């Protein structure tokens, strides 16, 4: 009888251990595949800290506190359309900096390729590698028309409160916002901030 009880106890223990292992596995899988939230105009952007292609730490909230941030998601250095877009945006960088704004570009390239994009394309703004897909998942921003773990091309303008004030989410890989629209979005944001709150906002 005692032998039978020990056998039953062992079976119960093994069963409990297996259930616990299964629960942990499910939790890990859920965590790995959990999605964040895509930036939405009029809502706060999710903060993040990352290391740029030059090994310098970048914290979004610290940067937008200094002035508007133009957040650029691109597919990768290997993408010719992305290269053209990044170089086009470089042309307005001095004008944006004159407004107190800065740009930062993010892709799922590794550090070496992100730095090559910065150097080879002559970019004066920061490039952030996301080869571990941390930001891709944080912003739920994987391409909607492919199964690849790469960013769906998009550009967002963030104000000094961390609110997304303008955004462009392309329909496909070739759909990018005109550079002058990006500049105009930042200009209007800065002008609105300089003008101060409206009477209605002051009363509320």
Description:
The chain is α/β, with parallel strands linked by helices and 204 residues long. The chain folds into two domains: 34 residues; 155 residues, Glutaredoxin. The longest helix has 32 residues. It is globular. The chain starts with a helix and ends with a helix. The relative contact order is 0.16.
State the CATH superfamily name of the largest domain. Answer: Glutaredoxin
Q: Specify the biggest β-sheet.
A: 5 strands, mixed
Count of helices? 7
Order of helices and strands: HEEHEHEHEHEEHH
Unreliable sequence segments: 16-34, 198-202
Strand content: 15-25%
**Overall strand count:** 7
Distance between the termini: 78 Å
* Total tally of structural domains: 2
Topology:
Elements: H1 2-33, E1 49-51, E2 57-59, H2 60-64, E3 69-73, H3 80-98, E4 102-107, H4 111-120, E5 126-129, H5 134-138, E6 154-158, E7 164-169, H6 179-195, H7 199-203
Parallel strand pairs: 3-4, 4-5
Antiparallel strand pairs: 1-2, 3-6, 6-7
Features:
2 domains; 204 residues; single chain; Glutaredoxin; alpha/beta; 16% strand; two-stranded antiparallel ribbon; 5-stranded mixed sheet; disordered C terminus
Give a summary of the structure in a few sentences.
The chain is an alpha/beta fold and 204 residues long.
